[in-house]
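writing this on my phone so excuse typos. first protein, seq and then structure
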Amino acid sequence: MAAAETMKKTAEQFSTASNQAFKDGVEKSLVALSEANTHSKKNLEAVVASVTAATKGAEALGAETFAYSKKAAEDQVAAMKSLAAAKSMQEAMELQTTWAKSAMEAYIAQMSKASEIVSASIKDSMKPLNERASAAVEKFQAAR
């Protein structure tokens, strides 16, 4: 009888311990799943923010380029009208030289503006992704 009682008690302890281990495992899995879900949600939000920033940058670049193109075309028409009204070859050459110089300066200024817009757009669009990468590194380091 004592052996049967010991066997019964051991089986009950084993059953209780295995049930508790299963319950702990399920709880840990649910916590890990919740954390992974939160992490994925934040990653998706970072991607959306990044794409939004890149889109704004592309829109700004497009608007700036359109405005420059419009002004350059207007300046070119005005220069051609001035050239057509020139009274001498000397005057025509001076007008042409002046226009070419101003057109080149405007082009260089436009390229500088475009470069600044692209640089700012890249910086703004990478910021949310860099923040998520930093968060992931911190999480992995904390887990060590």
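second protein below, same order as before
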Amino acid sequence: MNSDSDLQIAGDLLEVPHLLQAPREHPATVAEFAGLARSLAADRAQWEHLVRYDATTRWYHRLRTGPGYEIWLLSWVPGQGSGLHDHGPSSGVLTVLDGTLTEHSGRRTRALTAGAQRVFAPGYVHEVVNDALEPAVSLHVYFPGLTEMPMHTAPHCEAAARPGSVTA
């Protein structure tokens, strides 16, 4: 019977640099992008001083870019919304930093409070609105970087699914 263990055969992995994967400088997977968003959300010093509120339009600021991605910081005063849209060929991660936002997608409505995160693929159609009485702040990671944001009109069945909506 052979008494050699796998470690004896392979050796110490830490002593064989070519077997170790180098840490990635930039995120490359959906999980890594979601982790990056959570890490930025937790580090208020990186974004809090940049936030501005604009009563006439949603305020936004590109916080960071990297190879194949970009990160945006957005503020929403009560009543502001994105309109029904998708993100073209980009996937994304939306993270609420402060306040509460409401996401409408198809027949589903979700209240997203601080810390909530939504991941979406290309072609995902939704609308984000600040239905609350307090301002909100959100972080958006797009990969690849956002090149288009086609707007959509709400079909009759989607409008009927929203609370408080009026249908003809």
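The CA atoms of residues 13 and 19 lie 7 Å apart. thats all i got for now
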